[in-house]
Amino acid sequence: MAGTGGTAPATYSPSPTTHKNKTSLFQQDWVRPDGRGFHQCRPAFFRTGAVNAASGSAYAEFGNTKVIVSVFGPRESKKAMMYSDIGRLNCNVSYTTFASPVRGQGSDHKEYTAMLHKALEGAIILESFPKTTVDVFALVLESGGSDLPVVISCASLALADAGIMMYDLVASVSVSCLSKNLVIDPVFEEENSQDGSLMITCMPSRYEITQLTVTGEWSTPKINEGMQLCLDACAKLAKIMRSCLKEAASDSQE
Amino acid sequence: MVAAMEEDEKKQQAEVMVTPGEVLGRVSDVKPGRGAYAAVHNDTVYASLTGFCRTMPPSPDSSDQRPTVEVTGHKAHGPVPQPGSLVIARITKVMAKTASADIMCVGPKSVREKFTGIIRQQDVRATEIDKVDMHLSFRPGDIVKALVLSLGDSRAYFLSTAKNELGVVSAESIAGATMVPVSWTEMQCPLTGQIENRKVAKVAS
């Protein structure tokens, strides 16, 4: 191009063919990279007692998303804090440098931290440990999509493992909207090309929702469908979490 | 519904493992004990800990004849000082009217991370509380047995040694040896024979 000389380009306009690439991804026959059905979640693996130094801990693996959560407490609040009749919850979500496909700086996700706090504080009986603080530290080892729901479910398992009194376990699932399809438990690729997302955190035994996050464009029937999908998945996830806790407890008894 | 309830009760006798949020019974049938709570909106008793569920029969002279259901945590978190619990603490700082202490054990269990406690002049002993000299009662490094009076303020729990069996349990003399109690106000060093003043706990023999 530089070699021809002479004619200078007047204005640049994108060629009409560049739009086609984007739409072809969102055909009705989107096939999920791992071959799952649209309403099928990844197999969940949980293990408690991963960290010896912490009061309680849990490790969760959902396909390529691997998360480890440690809970410290109840321990003394910092001297600078004001006196409080009820306990305090302190959360932190951070990513390792090798968590994303492109190696980056291990960062502290302030927004995920705030969302984890909101999801958990409704489920913990704060009156049972006045004046003290419970610290929840979540570390995402590998981010393979749907990170925050996995972090929340894993954190509630870690809290149960630490012996903190809770109203109920907290299970969380998210749903992505890809043009007209609702896809549950999205992978990294699906999350990047989504039109909207819906994340529900609920206490399955009491059938109460602690947090609902909706982004993007949703029509009312779509929201209802998405919510129903999520609630069903949460109920199933809760069963897996409970069986993990019971297994760990009976193992330690022997 | 009734048949399922009876089956549940039989299961409870056999100690079932429960997880937080599992239904333990209805408020009309059972009372929530430790590790369980009653949800007001639907009159159900749920578990709040992971552990074994036990049903305690009600005491015969109480007006409320519901059995108490409690969950004993298989893995309890480290103990937290509660008002009325006996603690073992180490004195860190002695000042004119107060002494600071680090709480190391609550009851028979040791804590995972220390809590800060404070002993005020009026809580050192039961008699002549305004004439107490803190430096003649405690020294930094002493191990004391104390009672938690209250949650205190944001900085420390309020502790008290105002009983015969509370006070300094073990102390080191200036010479470096562990001292032997002589009376409720004095301890003696076995190496040098020196007498030092402390508020000594009366250990039952």
UniProtKB/TrEMBL annotation, chain A:
<dbReference type="InterPro" id="IPR001247">
    <property type="entry name" value="ExoRNase_PH_dom1"/>
</dbReference>
<feature type="region of interest" description="Disordered">
    <location>
        <begin position="1"/>
        <end position="22"/>
    </location>
</feature>
<dbReference type="InterPro" id="IPR050080">
    <property type="entry name" value="RNase_PH"/>
</dbReference>
<dbReference type="InterPro" id="IPR027408">
    <property type="entry name" value="PNPase/RNase_PH_dom_sf"/>
</dbReference>
<dbReference type="InterPro" id="IPR015847">
    <property type="entry name" value="ExoRNase_PH_dom2"/>
</dbReference>
<keyword id="KW-0271">Exosome</keyword>
<dbReference type="InterPro" id="IPR020568">
    <property type="entry name" value="Ribosomal_Su5_D2-typ_SF"/>
</dbReference>
<keyword id="KW-0698">rRNA processing</keyword>
<dbReference type="Pfam" id="PF01138">
    <property type="entry name" value="RNase_PH"/>
</dbReference>
<feature type="compositionally biased region" description="Low complexity">
    <location>
        <begin position="7"/>
        <end position="18"/>
    </location>
</feature>
<comment type="similarity">
    <text>Belongs to the RNase PH family.</text>
</comment>
<keyword id="KW-0963">Cytoplasm</keyword>
<feature type="domain" description="Exoribonuclease phosphorolytic">
    <location>
        <begin position="40"/>
        <end position="164"/>
    </location>
</feature>
<dbReference type="Pfam" id="PF03725">
    <property type="entry name" value="RNase_PH_C"/>
</dbReference>
<keyword id="KW-0539">Nucleus</keyword>
<protein>
    <submittedName>
        <fullName>Exosome complex component RRP41-like</fullName>
    </submittedName>
</protein>
<dbReference type="InterPro" id="IPR036345">
    <property type="entry name" value="ExoRNase_PH_dom2_sf"/>
</dbReference>
<feature type="domain" description="Exoribonuclease phosphorolytic">
    <location>
        <begin position="168"/>
        <end position="229"/>
    </location>
</feature>
<keyword id="KW-0694">RNA-binding</keyword>
UniProtKB/TrEMBL annotation, chain B:
<keyword id="KW-0271">Exosome</keyword>
<dbReference type="Pfam" id="PF14382">
    <property type="entry name" value="ECR1_N"/>
</dbReference>
<dbReference type="Pfam" id="PF10447">
    <property type="entry name" value="EXOSC1"/>
</dbReference>
<dbReference type="InterPro" id="IPR012340">
    <property type="entry name" value="NA-bd_OB-fold"/>
</dbReference>
<feature type="domain" description="Exosome complex component CSL4 C-terminal">
    <location>
        <begin position="110"/>
        <end position="151"/>
    </location>
</feature>
<feature type="domain" description="Exosome complex component N-terminal">
    <location>
        <begin position="17"/>
        <end position="52"/>
    </location>
</feature>
<keyword id="KW-0963">Cytoplasm</keyword>
<dbReference type="InterPro" id="IPR025721">
    <property type="entry name" value="Exosome_cplx_N_dom"/>
</dbReference>
<dbReference type="InterPro" id="IPR019495">
    <property type="entry name" value="EXOSC1_C"/>
</dbReference>
<feature type="region of interest" description="Disordered">
    <location>
        <begin position="56"/>
        <end position="79"/>
    </location>
</feature>
<protein>
    <recommendedName>
        <fullName>Exosome complex component CSL4</fullName>
    </recommendedName>
</protein>
<dbReference type="InterPro" id="IPR039771">
    <property type="entry name" value="Csl4"/>
</dbReference>
